[in-house]
Amino acid sequence: MTEPETADADLSDAGPGFVSEEAVYGLILVAGMIVTAGMHGDSSWAVFWTVVGTVLVFWSAHVYAGTLAHLHAGRRHLTDVRTALRAAVRRSSGLLIGAAAPAAILLLGASRAIDDGNAMWFALWAGVAVLAVLGYVAFLRRGATLPVRLLGAFTTALFGVAMIVLKAIIH
Q1: Cβ count near 43 (within 10 Å)
Q2: pLDDT above 90 covers what percent of the chain?
Q3: Minimal CA–CA distance to 103: which of 159, 26, 51?
Q4: Can you spell out the DSSP letters for 98-163?
Q5: CB neighbour list of residue 145: distance below 8 Å, 6 or more residues apart
Q6: Which helix (H) or strand (E) holds 77?
Q7: How far apart are CA 148 and CA 96, in angstroms?
Q8: Among candidates 131, 149, 163, 146, which has minimal Cα distance to 20?
Q9: Neighbour count for residue 169 (Cβ, 10 Å)
Q10: Residue 116, number of CB atoms within 10 A of its CB
Q11: Torsion-angle region of residue 72: left (phi > 0), alpha (psi -120 to 50) or beta?
Q12: Is the pLDDT of residue 62 over 70?
């Protein structure tokens, strides 16, 4: 196995929460909060707490809704609450995973490890990078060719770029 194939094999083994609609949604949700907070001139610290609080509420609601949906998977199959909750937490983990990198960068801005004024921009660009990885891995798992994986990465990353364009227009 060549080195690039080894790296791709490692990516294709990423857990189910890593490449999921919830992870993409979580990143776009965080980017939207950063754009909105940037309109008000909030500090990285304020935006960090807004992101963390909002993501936790969305994640909790997603887990709750998923648990309810899993309780009755079919007319003849009733699932116990613990099994339904575990399935919902596992599926919803992408929301938390998607928010992690941008939130960490906001925290770096809040702690002055990076310039507070640039932290939101860095967090948005980190979101673009993570979206690109999510798109790449999704197509890798399907066994797509390298050009298709790169196109998937580019297309997924465009959602993050759209948020950056929105921030640039609003700011």
Answers
A1: 16
A2: 62
A3: 51
A4: HHHHHHHHHHHHHTTSS-HHHHHHHHHHHHHHHHHHHHHHHHHHTT--HHHHHHHHHHHHHHHHHH
A5: none
A6: strand 77-78
A7: 27
A8: 131
A9: 8
A10: 17
A11: beta
A12: yes
How distant, in Å, are the alpha carbons of 7, 49, 83 from that of 131?
18, 22, 30
DSSP per-residue codes, 82-111: HHHHHHHHHHHHHHHHHHHHHHHHHHHHHT
Question: What is the phi/psi pair of residue 5, to 5°?
Answer: -65, -35
Q: What is the CA radius of gyration of the chain?
A: 18
Report the C-alpha gap between 164 and 160 in whole angstroms.
6
Tokens of 57: 């509420």
Give residue-wise pLDDT tens across range 92-103.
Answer: 999 998 899 999
